[in-house]
Protein backbone atom coordinates (compact mmCIF):
# COMPACT_ATOMS: atom_id res chain seq x y z
CA UNK A 1 0.00 0.00 0.00
CA UNK A 2 1.27 3.44 -0.90
CA UNK A 3 1.74 5.78 2.06
CA UNK A 4 1.94 9.04 0.15
CA UNK A 5 -0.60 10.42 -2.30
CA UNK A 6 -1.18 13.60 -4.25
CA UNK A 7 -4.59 15.11 -4.83
CA UNK A 8 -4.73 17.48 -7.79
CA UNK A 9 -7.52 19.49 -9.38
CA UNK A 10 -7.23 20.46 -13.05
CA UNK A 11 -9.51 23.01 -14.75
CA UNK A 12 -11.78 21.89 -17.58
CA UNK A 13 -11.86 24.69 -20.14
CA UNK A 14 -14.38 25.51 -22.83
CA UNK A 15 -14.47 22.96 -25.59
CA UNK A 16 -13.06 20.31 -23.26
CA UNK A 17 -14.48 17.88 -20.71
CA UNK A 18 -13.46 16.09 -17.52
CA UNK A 19 -13.41 12.80 -19.46
CA UNK A 20 -11.02 14.15 -22.09
CA UNK A 21 -8.69 15.61 -19.44
CA UNK A 22 -8.80 12.27 -17.60
CA UNK A 23 -7.92 10.38 -20.78
CA UNK A 24 -5.02 12.70 -21.59
CA UNK A 25 -3.71 12.39 -18.03
CA UNK A 26 -3.92 8.60 -18.15
CA UNK A 27 -2.10 8.53 -21.47
CA UNK A 28 0.66 10.89 -20.31
CA UNK A 29 1.17 9.04 -17.02
CA UNK A 30 1.34 5.65 -18.72
CA UNK A 31 3.87 6.89 -21.29
CA UNK A 32 6.14 9.04 -19.13
CA UNK A 33 5.71 7.79 -15.56
CA UNK A 34 4.50 4.19 -15.70
CA UNK A 35 5.20 3.54 -11.99
CA UNK A 36 2.64 6.13 -10.83
CA UNK A 37 -0.75 4.78 -9.82
CA UNK A 38 -3.58 7.07 -10.89
CA UNK A 39 -7.07 7.24 -9.40
CA UNK A 40 -10.07 9.40 -10.14
CA UNK A 41 -11.58 11.18 -7.15
CA UNK A 42 -13.04 14.52 -6.15
CA UNK A 43 -11.32 14.94 -2.81
CA UNK A 44 -7.97 14.89 -1.04
CA UNK A 45 -6.84 14.31 2.48
CA UNK A 46 -4.48 16.50 4.35
CA UNK A 47 -3.82 14.58 7.53
CA UNK A 48 -4.80 11.08 8.50
CA UNK A 49 -5.32 11.07 12.25
CA UNK A 50 -1.68 10.25 12.98
CA UNK A 51 -2.30 10.41 16.71
CA UNK A 52 -4.82 7.56 16.68
CA UNK A 53 -2.74 5.57 14.21
CA UNK A 54 0.34 5.85 16.44
CA UNK A 55 -1.76 4.80 19.42
CA UNK A 56 -2.92 1.74 17.48
CA UNK A 57 0.65 0.82 16.55
CA UNK A 58 1.80 1.18 20.18
CA UNK A 59 -1.10 -0.89 21.55
CA UNK A 60 -0.58 -3.60 18.95
CA UNK A 61 3.12 -3.76 19.81
CA UNK A 62 2.52 -3.98 23.56
CA UNK A 63 -0.29 -6.50 23.13
CA UNK A 64 1.68 -8.68 20.75
CA UNK A 65 -1.17 -8.34 18.24
CA UNK A 66 -0.28 -8.84 14.60
CA UNK A 67 -0.70 -5.47 12.91
CA UNK A 68 -3.78 -5.47 10.71
CA UNK A 69 -4.76 -3.21 7.82
CA UNK A 70 -6.78 -0.24 9.00
CA UNK A 71 -10.19 0.15 7.45
CA UNK A 72 -12.86 2.77 6.91
CA UNK A 73 -16.40 1.40 6.81
CA UNK A 74 -14.90 -2.05 6.25
CA UNK A 75 -12.77 -0.90 3.31
CA UNK A 76 -8.95 -0.67 3.42
CA UNK A 77 -7.75 2.91 3.92
CA UNK A 78 -6.03 3.17 0.54
CA UNK A 79 -9.10 1.85 -1.26
CA UNK A 80 -11.35 4.28 0.59
CA UNK A 81 -9.04 7.14 -0.38
CA UNK A 82 -8.74 6.26 -4.04
CA UNK A 83 -12.43 5.38 -4.48
CA UNK A 84 -13.93 8.06 -2.28
CA UNK A 85 -17.66 8.71 -2.61
CA UNK A 86 -19.40 11.53 -0.78
CA UNK A 87 -21.68 10.30 2.03
CA UNK A 88 -24.90 12.12 1.19
CA UNK A 89 -26.75 10.65 4.18
CA UNK A 90 -24.16 11.94 6.64
CA UNK A 91 -23.36 15.22 4.91
CA UNK A 92 -26.27 16.40 2.72
CA UNK A 93 -24.93 18.35 -0.25
CA UNK A 94 -27.78 20.85 0.10
CA UNK A 95 -26.41 21.94 3.49
CA UNK A 96 -24.23 25.09 3.60
CA UNK A 97 -20.51 24.33 3.36
CA UNK A 98 -19.87 26.14 6.64
CA UNK A 99 -22.39 23.92 8.39
CA UNK A 100 -20.74 20.81 6.94
CA UNK A 101 -17.24 21.91 7.93
CA UNK A 102 -18.33 22.94 11.44
CA UNK A 103 -20.07 19.60 11.90
CA UNK A 104 -16.89 17.76 10.91
CA UNK A 105 -14.78 19.79 13.33
CA UNK A 106 -17.22 19.21 16.21
CA UNK A 107 -17.28 15.47 15.50
CA UNK A 108 -13.50 15.16 15.41
CA UNK A 109 -13.10 17.32 18.53
CA UNK A 110 -15.37 14.94 20.45
CA UNK A 111 -13.36 11.93 19.29
CA UNK A 112 -10.08 13.61 20.27
CA UNK A 113 -11.46 14.46 23.72
CA UNK A 114 -12.62 10.89 24.16
CA UNK A 115 -9.18 9.66 23.12
CA UNK A 116 -7.49 11.82 25.76
CA UNK A 117 -9.78 10.48 28.50
CA UNK A 118 -9.32 6.85 27.47
CA UNK A 119 -5.54 7.14 27.09
CA UNK A 120 -5.26 8.91 30.46
CA UNK A 121 -7.24 6.14 32.16
CA UNK A 122 -5.11 3.44 30.56
CA UNK A 123 -1.86 5.30 31.30
CA UNK A 124 -2.83 5.77 34.96
CA UNK A 125 -3.27 2.02 35.44
CA UNK A 126 0.00 1.34 33.61
CA UNK A 127 1.81 3.83 35.85
CA UNK A 128 0.48 2.18 38.99
CA UNK A 129 1.48 -1.25 37.71
CA UNK A 130 4.92 -0.04 36.67
CA UNK A 131 5.46 1.48 40.12
CA UNK A 132 4.75 -1.88 41.74
CA UNK A 133 6.92 -3.71 39.23
CA UNK A 134 9.80 -1.30 39.85
CA UNK A 135 9.65 -2.16 43.54
CA UNK A 136 9.92 -5.83 42.62
CA UNK A 137 12.76 -5.24 40.19
CA UNK A 138 16.37 -4.33 40.83
CA UNK A 139 18.83 -6.15 43.06
CA UNK A 140 18.04 -7.81 46.37
CA UNK A 141 19.69 -4.86 48.08
CA UNK A 142 16.86 -2.50 47.11
CA UNK A 143 13.87 -4.43 45.71
CA UNK A 144 10.68 -5.33 47.52
CA UNK A 145 11.06 -8.75 49.17
CA UNK A 146 7.41 -9.49 49.85
CA UNK A 147 6.94 -11.90 46.97
CA UNK A 148 10.15 -13.80 47.84
CA UNK A 149 9.39 -14.55 51.48
CA UNK A 150 6.81 -17.16 52.52
CA UNK A 151 5.14 -17.43 55.95
CA UNK A 152 7.10 -20.59 56.78
CA UNK A 153 10.37 -18.71 56.23
CA UNK A 154 9.73 -16.36 59.15
CA UNK A 155 9.74 -17.13 62.88
CA UNK A 156 8.28 -14.43 65.09
CA UNK A 157 7.63 -15.32 68.73
CA UNK A 158 8.04 -13.66 72.08
CA UNK A 159 11.71 -14.57 72.19
CA UNK A 160 12.75 -15.46 68.65
CA UNK A 161 12.84 -13.45 65.43
CA UNK A 162 13.99 -14.05 61.86
CA UNK A 163 16.09 -11.48 60.02
CA UNK A 164 16.76 -11.29 56.27
CA UNK A 165 20.38 -10.88 55.19
CA UNK A 166 21.49 -9.73 51.74
CA UNK A 167 24.89 -11.25 50.99
CA UNK A 168 27.13 -10.67 47.99
CA UNK A 169 26.95 -13.81 45.87
CA UNK A 170 30.74 -14.05 46.15
CA UNK A 171 30.63 -13.85 49.98
CA UNK A 172 28.16 -16.66 50.61
CA UNK A 173 30.77 -19.04 51.99
CA UNK A 174 31.89 -16.31 54.36
CA UNK A 175 28.30 -15.79 55.52
CA UNK A 176 27.62 -19.48 56.08
CA UNK A 177 30.81 -19.93 58.05
CA UNK A 178 30.43 -16.85 60.24
CA UNK A 179 26.77 -15.95 60.85
CA UNK A 180 26.43 -18.30 63.85
CA UNK A 181 29.28 -16.54 65.67
CA UNK A 182 28.52 -12.91 64.86
CA UNK A 183 26.73 -12.73 68.23
CA UNK A 184 26.08 -15.14 71.08
CA UNK A 185 22.36 -15.72 70.58
CA UNK A 186 22.02 -17.03 67.00
CA UNK A 187 20.13 -20.27 66.45
CA UNK A 188 22.63 -22.76 64.93
CA UNK A 189 22.02 -23.91 61.35
CA UNK A 190 19.05 -21.50 61.08
CA UNK A 191 20.19 -19.74 57.91
CA UNK A 192 18.43 -20.70 54.68
CA UNK A 193 18.87 -19.22 51.18
CA UNK A 194 15.60 -17.93 49.75
CA UNK A 195 16.67 -16.31 46.50
CA UNK A 196 19.69 -15.33 44.41
CA UNK A 197 20.11 -12.75 41.64
CA UNK A 198 23.11 -11.62 39.59
CA UNK A 199 24.66 -9.74 42.53
CA UNK A 200 23.29 -10.98 45.82
CA UNK A 201 21.78 -13.88 47.71
CA UNK A 202 18.98 -13.57 50.27
CA UNK A 203 19.37 -15.58 53.50
CA UNK A 204 17.29 -15.94 56.66
CA UNK A 205 18.82 -16.12 60.10
CA UNK A 206 16.95 -16.79 63.37
CA UNK A 207 18.10 -15.45 66.72
CA UNK A 208 16.88 -14.13 70.05
CA UNK A 209 14.84 -10.96 69.58
CA UNK A 210 16.83 -9.06 72.19
CA UNK A 211 19.99 -9.63 70.14
CA UNK A 212 18.62 -8.37 66.82
CA UNK A 213 20.11 -4.85 66.94
CA UNK A 214 23.51 -6.17 67.96
CA UNK A 215 23.42 -8.71 65.13
CA UNK A 216 22.62 -5.97 62.61
CA UNK A 217 25.65 -4.00 63.74
CA UNK A 218 27.99 -7.00 63.57
CA UNK A 219 26.64 -8.05 60.19
CA UNK A 220 27.17 -4.55 58.77
CA UNK A 221 30.79 -4.67 59.92
CA UNK A 222 31.22 -7.79 57.77
CA UNK A 223 29.46 -6.13 54.78
CA UNK A 224 26.28 -8.18 55.22
CA UNK A 225 23.11 -6.10 54.76
CA UNK A 226 20.15 -6.83 57.06
CA UNK A 227 16.95 -5.76 55.32
CA UNK A 228 14.07 -4.34 57.33
CA UNK A 229 11.16 -6.65 56.74
CA UNK A 230 7.99 -7.54 58.62
CA UNK A 231 5.79 -10.27 57.25
CA UNK A 232 2.08 -9.53 57.36
CA UNK A 233 -0.23 -12.01 55.68
CA UNK A 234 -3.04 -9.48 55.28
CA UNK A 235 -0.70 -6.94 53.68
CA UNK A 236 0.75 -9.59 51.38
CA UNK A 237 -2.71 -10.75 50.30
CA UNK A 238 -3.78 -7.14 49.73
CA UNK A 239 -0.72 -6.42 47.60
CA UNK A 240 -1.31 -9.54 45.52
CA UNK A 241 -4.96 -8.67 45.00
CA UNK A 242 -4.01 -5.13 44.01
CA UNK A 243 -1.44 -6.41 41.54
CA UNK A 244 -3.87 -8.94 40.04
CA UNK A 245 -6.56 -6.26 39.70
CA UNK A 246 -4.19 -3.78 38.06
CA UNK A 247 -3.00 -6.41 35.58
CA UNK A 248 -6.60 -7.31 34.75
CA UNK A 249 -7.57 -3.65 34.41
CA UNK A 250 -4.57 -2.95 32.19
CA UNK A 251 -5.40 -5.81 29.83
CA UNK A 252 -9.08 -4.85 29.76
CA UNK A 253 -8.43 -1.14 29.15
CA UNK A 254 -5.78 -1.87 26.52
CA UNK A 255 -8.11 -4.17 24.60
CA UNK A 256 -10.99 -1.71 24.87
CA UNK A 257 -8.80 1.23 23.80
CA UNK A 258 -7.42 -0.69 20.82
CA UNK A 259 -10.90 -1.60 19.57
CA UNK A 260 -12.05 1.98 20.09
CA UNK A 261 -9.04 3.26 18.13
CA UNK A 262 -9.77 0.93 15.22
CA UNK A 263 -13.32 2.28 14.99
CA UNK A 264 -12.44 5.91 15.65
CA UNK A 265 -9.60 5.90 13.13
CA UNK A 266 -12.10 5.02 10.42
CA UNK A 267 -14.49 7.73 11.58
CA UNK A 268 -11.79 10.40 11.69
CA UNK A 269 -10.38 9.34 8.33
CA UNK A 270 -13.82 9.51 6.74
CA UNK A 271 -14.52 12.91 8.33
CA UNK A 272 -11.24 14.36 7.08
CA UNK A 273 -11.88 13.01 3.60
CA UNK A 274 -15.17 14.87 3.50
CA UNK A 275 -13.55 17.98 4.92
CA UNK A 276 -10.91 17.81 2.19
CA UNK A 277 -13.57 17.29 -0.44
CA UNK A 278 -15.00 20.64 0.61
CA UNK A 279 -11.50 22.15 0.47
CA UNK A 280 -10.68 20.91 -3.00
CA UNK A 281 -14.02 22.21 -4.23
CA UNK A 282 -13.64 25.67 -2.70
CA UNK A 283 -9.96 26.01 -3.65
CA UNK A 284 -10.76 25.02 -7.23
CA UNK A 285 -13.54 27.60 -7.40
CA UNK A 286 -11.16 30.25 -6.05
CA UNK A 287 -8.43 29.18 -8.47
CA UNK A 288 -10.43 28.48 -11.64
CA UNK A 289 -13.55 30.60 -11.14
CA UNK A 290 -17.24 29.95 -11.82
CA UNK A 291 -19.08 27.96 -12.99
CA UNK A 292 -17.27 24.99 -11.37
CA UNK A 293 -15.60 22.95 -14.08
CA UNK A 294 -12.61 20.88 -13.01
CA UNK A 295 -11.32 17.32 -12.66
CA UNK A 296 -10.03 16.03 -9.31
CA UNK A 297 -7.65 13.09 -9.25
CA UNK A 298 -5.59 11.10 -6.74
CA UNK A 299 -2.07 9.96 -7.67
CA UNK A 300 0.57 7.94 -5.86
CA UNK A 301 3.87 8.72 -7.64
CA UNK A 302 7.14 7.15 -6.64
CA UNK A 303 9.80 9.53 -5.36
CA UNK A 304 11.86 9.20 -8.53
CA UNK A 305 8.92 10.08 -10.78
CA UNK A 306 7.59 13.08 -8.85
CA UNK A 307 9.21 15.74 -11.07
CA UNK A 308 7.93 14.04 -14.21
CA UNK A 309 4.38 13.79 -12.87
CA UNK A 310 4.42 17.43 -11.79
CA UNK A 311 5.48 18.39 -15.29
CA UNK A 312 2.63 16.32 -16.79
CA UNK A 313 0.05 17.96 -14.52
CA UNK A 314 1.36 21.43 -15.30
CA UNK A 315 1.22 20.67 -19.01
CA UNK A 316 -2.41 19.58 -18.72
CA UNK A 317 -3.24 22.66 -16.67
CA UNK A 318 -2.30 24.99 -19.51
CA UNK A 319 -3.73 28.00 -17.73
CA UNK A 320 -2.72 31.58 -18.29
CA UNK A 321 -2.08 31.99 -14.57
CA UNK A 322 0.65 29.35 -14.55
CA UNK A 323 3.50 31.90 -14.52
CA UNK A 324 1.87 33.83 -11.71
CA UNK A 325 1.49 30.79 -9.48
CA UNK A 326 5.05 29.61 -10.17
CA UNK A 327 6.43 33.02 -9.33
CA UNK A 328 4.38 33.16 -6.15
CA UNK A 329 5.78 29.86 -4.85
CA UNK A 330 8.71 31.62 -3.22
CA UNK A 331 6.65 34.19 -1.40
CA UNK A 332 3.56 32.16 -0.52
CA UNK A 333 0.31 31.40 -2.23
CA UNK A 334 -1.68 34.49 -1.44
CA UNK A 335 -5.21 33.41 -0.59
CA UNK A 336 -4.53 29.73 -1.12
CA UNK A 337 -4.27 27.46 1.92
CA UNK A 338 -0.73 27.53 3.30
CA UNK A 339 -0.67 23.76 3.82
CA UNK A 340 -1.30 23.08 0.15
CA UNK A 341 1.50 22.50 -2.31
CA UNK A 342 2.43 25.56 -4.41
CA UNK A 343 1.62 24.67 -8.00
CA UNK A 344 -0.38 26.26 -10.85
CA UNK A 345 -3.18 23.73 -10.23
CA UNK A 346 -4.81 22.83 -6.92
CA UNK A 347 -2.63 20.23 -5.25
CA UNK A 348 -2.10 18.71 -1.83
CA UNK A 349 0.09 15.93 -0.53
CA UNK A 350 -1.43 13.19 1.67
CA UNK A 351 0.77 11.25 4.06
CA UNK A 352 -0.97 8.18 5.45
CA UNK A 353 1.71 7.63 8.09
From TrEMBL:
<comment type="similarity">
    <text>Belongs to the V-ATPase C subunit family.</text>
</comment>
<dbReference type="InterPro" id="IPR004907">
    <property type="entry name" value="ATPase_V1-cplx_csu"/>
</dbReference>
<keyword id="KW-0813">Transport</keyword>
<keyword id="KW-0406">Ion transport</keyword>
<dbReference type="Pfam" id="PF03223">
    <property type="entry name" value="V-ATPase_C"/>
</dbReference>
<comment type="function">
    <text>Subunit of the V1 complex of vacuolar(H+)-ATPase (V-ATPase), a multisubunit enzyme composed of a peripheral complex (V1) that hydrolyzes ATP and a membrane integral complex (V0) that translocates protons. V-ATPase is responsible for acidifying and maintaining the pH of intracellular compartments and in some cell types, is targeted to the plasma membrane, where it is responsible for acidifying the extracellular environment. Subunit C is necessary for the assembly of the catalytic sector of the enzyme and is likely to have a specific function in its catalytic activity.</text>
</comment>
<keyword id="KW-0375">Hydrogen ion transport</keyword>
<comment type="subunit">
    <text>V-ATPase is a heteromultimeric enzyme composed of a peripheral catalytic V1 complex (components A to H) attached to an integral membrane V0 proton pore complex.</text>
</comment>
<dbReference type="InterPro" id="IPR036132">
    <property type="entry name" value="Vac_ATP_synth_c_sf"/>
</dbReference>
<protein>
    <recommendedName>
        <fullName>V-type proton ATPase subunit C</fullName>
    </recommendedName>
</protein>
